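Usage example:
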Amino acid sequence: MKLIDYFSLALDGVRERKSRSIGAVIGIVIAVVALALALGIGEAFKATFYETLKRAFGPDIIYVIPSEHLTESDVMILSSLPNAKQVIPIVGTSVIIKAGTLERAVMIYGIRPEYLKFIMGVDKVEDAIEEGSADLVGLNIIVGEYLAYDYLTQTKLIEVGQQVILQTPQRTSVAIVTGILKPAAGPGSAFINTRASVFINLDTFFRLFRKDMTYDLAIVQVEDVDKIKETMDLIKAYLPQAEVFSLKFALEQFGVFMSSVQIFLGIVSGIGLFITGLWIFDTMTINVVQRTREIGVMKALGFKKRQIMFLFLSEAIVITIIGVAVGAVLTIVLSNVVGIPMFGMMIKPKITPGILLLVTVTPIVTNLVATLAPAYRAAKLDPVEALRYE
Amino acid sequence: MSNIIRVVNVTKLYKMGESEVWALKGVSLEVKEEEFIAIVGPSGSGKSTLLYVIGGLIRPTSGKVYVNSVDITTMSDDELSEFRHRNIGFVFQMYHLIPRMTALKNVMLPLKLRGVPGTEAKKRALKALELVGLKHRAYHRPAQLSGGEQQRVAIARAIVTEPKIILADEPTGNVDRRSAIQIMELFKKLNKDLGVTIVMVTHNLELIHYCHRAARLLDGRIAKIYTPSEYRKLAEDMTRAVQAEAPVV
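Running the assembly step on the lines above writes:
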C-alpha cells in the first residue's frame, strides 16, 4: 500500500470524527504555541544577556577579585605575567555627593587617567566624554550621566566646572566636575556602573579615601586570547584565594543557568504536550473500539497487522501535523507581537529553527507513542471477532 | 476440474472460560474449480466457522486446508493476510462496507492495499460497480443505498481484485427477496462467465438451485453432500414433518 493511500485513508478517518479531531488539533496548537513561546523567551533572554556579557567582559579580559585587597606589588606581578598586556587596578568606595539640590550616595573610583578609555570601551578618552574634558588630575572628577541629569525629567543636576562635596564618614572633601561621561560601556561595566559613578585620579583617591594604597579589583588584558587559560592558571597559582574568571567562564556559567531555566520552562510547557498525548490516546482508543468491525473488514480484505497499525498511526500523524502547522504559524505571528518588558527593553520570543524543529518533532513523537497502544490493539484484533463486534 | 479447495479432517474447538465447544468435528470437503457450492445446516452447526477456516480468518484446531494446493494452516498471520488478499473475496451478511466512504472508495480499498495507482484503481472499481449494476451509485455512501445495493457494492469490492474464490456468508440474509434473487443471479454470472469458485453459507433453501452442490452440516460434521434437487426434497420433507407435528391452533 502506498504512503499517500495511508494518509488519504487517515484523512477520511479524521474527517469522520470532526469534533474529536478538532479538539485534539486545538490541544496540539496550544501545546506547541506554549512550548515554542516559553523556549523562545528563554532563547531571547539568553541572547540579550549574552550580548550584554560580551560587551561587559571582553574576550581578552581576566578579572581578578582578591579575597581582601590587591597591593601595588600584586599588580606589578600580574603585569609581569608572560601573556599580560596590561593590568588595570581598580579601587572604589562609597561616598555621598552633594551638588546644589543633588545629594546621593554613589561609588567613586580611583583610576589612572590613561585607563579610563579602556573602562569605557573607547579608542580615545575624549570619545567617552559627553561634556567637558577628561582631564583627571588633582581634585578633578568625571561623573556619569545619571548623576549629571535627572533620570526622569532630564534636567541638569551638575554642571561642568561645578564644585561638589564628597562625603564619607571619615572626611568631607571638595572636588570639581571636569567632565560628564557618555552612556558607553566597556570591559569595566561588568563591575562598574559607569553611568552612575564618579571617577577621580588614583593618587587623589588614595590620599582622600584609602591610605593603605590597595586595590579592590584588577582587570588583566592578555596578548593572546588562546592562552587565556594558562594565564588564569598562573594568576590562580599566585592568588589562590582570589576569584579569577574570564568571559568564557562567565558565558559558561550563564549558559548553564540559562539552559536550566530553558529546561524548566520546557518541562512546564511540555505538560501541555503530555496532556495532548493523553487526549490522543483517549481519542485513538475510542476510535479503535468504534471501528472494530471496520478493522475486521480490513483484515478480511488482506490488511496485515503492521498495515492496520500504520493506518492508526497515520491518523495521529495527520492530526498532529495539522496542529503543529497551525501552532507554528501562530507562534511566528505571536512572537512578533508579545514580549516581556525587562530592564527597560521589550524581550520578544526568539523562535530559532531549533525551537521550531523541537516543537514539530516532540508532538509527533509524543502522539505516536500515545497511539502505539491503541494501534497495536487494533492490529492484534481477531478478524472474526472484530467482524461480529456489535 | 481439479480441486481448488480441499478441507481435510478439520476440527475447531472454541474455549469460553471453562467450557469447550467443538464447532467442527472432523470436516472434510473438496470444492472443484469454478464450482458454486452452498454450505447449509441449522444455526450453530459450524457453517460460518468452516467458511472462515477456508478463508484463513480462523485457524483450525487440527486438520489441513489446502487452497490452490497450498496448505494455509501452516501460514503466519501476515502470509494469511496476503493469501486472502490474493485469492479470496469475502461477502458478509451485514455487507460491512465502511460507512464514511462512498461505494467507489469502498470498492477501491482492496486495490489501494495492492498499491494500484489511483486512476487505474478508480477505473477498475467503476468496472466492478458496473458489473454489479451500480456504476450510477458510485459516489453514494452506504447509508444512501438499500440493503440489496449495499450487498452488491460488497460483491463489487470482493471481485475487484479478480479473486479465484468468493466466500459468501449468508449474502442474502439481510436483503429482501427481490434483492436476494439479484445477488444470486450475480453470483451465477460471476461463476459461469468469470469462472469464480463460490462457497456460500445460506439458510435460504430457495437459493440452493443456483448452486452445483450443497454440503449439509449437522453438529460440526458434514452430514451429506446433496445436489440441489436432493436438498430441496430433503428440505420439503423436513418442513412437512414439522408441520405435521405442530399443534393445530
